Amino acid sequence: MSDLRITEAFLYMDYLCFRALCCKGPPPARPEYDLVCIGLTGSGKTSLLSKLCSESPDSVVSTTGFSIKAVPFQNAILNVKELGGADNIRKYWSRYYQGSQGVIFVLDSASSEDDLETARNELHSALQHPQLCTLPFLILANHQDKPAARSVQEVKKYFELEPLARGKRWILQPCSLDDTDALKDSFSQLINLLEEKDHEAVRM
């Protein structure tokens, strides 16, 4: 091989190295999903979302109307619209459902029987709502660190999830503020359901 060819080969290799090191394009954009987060007052919605956003617990204030948080994950960004859970606000929840791609329902697994009954009714209503019934649901049985907390199996039975949610995409997971890894894993499972729904829509 001539000296000219050898020089050209080295120059081309240098060019490839330069492109690899210095000319990388921006990383691909993470998909974004719009979610609605509902649950009774005191279920822990705001605290859980703030934990995922690495916000100080001292800054957490219970949501009275609605708030929106962008919750970042490695493979997606969740734009979560959290709705207040007070009696006088729940009747307006459905006004905020439009455009949602998934649902987060947070319940207090250590609550009173009356509150648990109310939470069950609200979840049943959400699962059957025309704007939500085809969407993935993440149901979080929160406050598992409290002595009175019901187990996931107890919640599943009491909420009659197997017959009611048959054929729907849903996940029921235990959680507490003390176990961030388990909380993140629950949301990762939800993201998988959202991605599956995206892929189904592309194939149609």
What does this structure look like?
The protein starts with a helix and ends with a helix. With 204 residues, the protein is of the alpha/beta class. The protein has a six-stranded mixed beta sheet, with helices on both faces. Helix content is 41%, strand content 19%. The chain has one domain: Rossmann fold.
Helices and strands, in N-to-C order? HEHEEHEHEHHEH
CATH architecture level-2 label:
3-Layer(aba) Sandwich
Average pLDDT:
86
Q: At the first level of CATH, what is the class?
A: Alpha Beta
Helix segment count?
7
Query: Total number of β-strand segments?
Result: 6
Total domain modules: 1
Question: Could you give a quick summary of the protein structure above?
Answer:
The chain is of the alpha/beta class and 204 residues long. Helix content is 41%, strand content 19%. The chain has a single domain (32-203), classed as P-loop containing nucleotide triphosphate hydrolases (Rossmann fold, 3-Layer(aba) Sandwich), CATH 3.40.50.300.
Helix and strand layout, with pairings?
Elements: H1 3-22, E1 32-38, H2 45-52, E2 66-72, E3 77-83, H3 87-90, E4 102-108, H4 113-128, E5 137-142, H5 152-158, H6 161-164, E6 170-174, H7 180-203
Parallel strand pairs: 1-3, 1-4, 4-5, 5-6
Antiparallel strand pairs: 2-3
Keywords: GTP-binding, Magnesium, Metal-binding, Nucleotide-binding
Binding site for GTP: 39-46, 85, 142-145
InterPro entries: ARL15, P-loop_NTPase, Small_GTPase_ARF/SAR
